[in-house]
Amino acid sequence: MKCNPDPYVLRLLAGLGAGFDCASYGEIANVLGTGIVDPSRIIYANPCKAVSHLKQANAAGVDLMTFDNADELHKVARVHSNARLVLRILTDDSKALCRLGLKFGAPLVAVPGLLAKARELGLNVVGISFHVGSGNYDATVFSDAVSRARAAFDMGREVGYRFSLLDIGGGFEDATFEATAADLRAAIQQ
Q1: Phi, psi of 95 (to 5 degrees)
Q2: 95-132 burial by CB neighbour count: b if 16+ within 10 A, else e?
Q3: How far apart are CA 186 and CA 131, in angstroms?
Q4: CB-based contact 91:148 (threshold 8 Å)
Q5: By the 8 A CB rule, do 43 and 86 touch?
Q6: What are the residues facing 127 on neighbouring strands?
Q7: Which tens digits make up the pLDDT trace of 70-79?
Q8: Which one-letter DSSP state was computed for residue 64?
């Protein structure tokens, strides 16, 4: 959504059946404003949301969203307890031009505690997400991220969750797309 919010592009993507990754309620409103996107096709992919935005997402029917900290879990439990949550984990983005891990993503050591807190609060965690950073020209970082996600899936199972979603996020580059796709394919199969 962020890379091209043009209404014509949004309608074209919606017509083709695309889903939408939105980082703000403003982006969600733009997508829903097309009039042809069901809220179930949106993930609110900002792990730190304002309470007012959580309330707006809830009212709009957007229930799939990311988190990476306990404060976010408490907010969601208060104002959007029916949300389907996706835990954003920290990955190696050291080779990216825009290192999103400086702001977002839970280190693996924090995952068991976050999942236990989500379970304690009665929240539904459905999967794991990651983002290797924008402008990342090293295709191998995706296999490392998938390995970390596998570990997080296992941690979820240990506290009673059965995850069904892996959100690979972004970081794809045209020049390395084929190598990245091959790396991802192999990592997911493994």
Answers
A1: -105, 10
A2: ebeebbbeebbbeeebbeebbebbeeeebebbbbbbbb
A3: 18
A4: yes
A5: yes
A6: 86, 165
A7: 999 999 999 9
A8: E
